[in-house]
Amino acid sequence: MEGSASADWPLWEVFVRPRRGFSHAHAGSLHAADAAMALRNARDLYTRRSEGVSLWVVPAATITASSPDEKDAFFDPAADKVYRHPSFFQPPEGVEHL
After folding, report:
1. pLDDT, tens digit, for every residue of 25-40?
2. Which of 39, 54, 77, 92 satisfies CB 3.0 to 4.6 Å to 17 for a cystine?
3. pTM of the model
4. Distance between CA 75 and CA 70 in Å, rounded?
């Protein structure tokens, strides 16, 4: 295999779930020719010490994300919806745990 071949492979983002009941967390990125190779390489790179019980590999080209530079304009519309904040609600009388 030529050293430059892997540079032409697509970039994959790797997510690892450390234990059952936990969320997958971004672990890193790698280049691979296809999903099966990405999954095997992710296992070898990111779970060498049994750090995970589940892996996701996602083609980086398919991820759509908001920009941190535009966070104010993107997230501000949610700030004017006070009904989304717990302080908007009054707990019913006699309810101890809500």
Report:
1. 999 999 999 999 999 9
2. 54
3. 0.67
4. 9
Distances, alpha carbon 44 to alpha carbons 17, 73, 91, in Å? 15, 40, 50
Whole-number Å distance between alpha carbons of 96 and 75: 33
* Structural contact between residues 10 and 32, judged by C-beta atoms closer than 8 angstroms: yes
Domains of the chain are 6-66 (3.10.20.520)
**For residue 90, what are the contacts with CB-CB under 8 A and spacing of at least 6?**
none
Burial bucket for residue 42 (CB in 10 Å: 0-12, 13-18, 19+): buried
Q: What is the DSSP letter of 9?
A: S
Number of residues assigned to the chain: 98
- Chain position carrying tokens 């609600």: 89
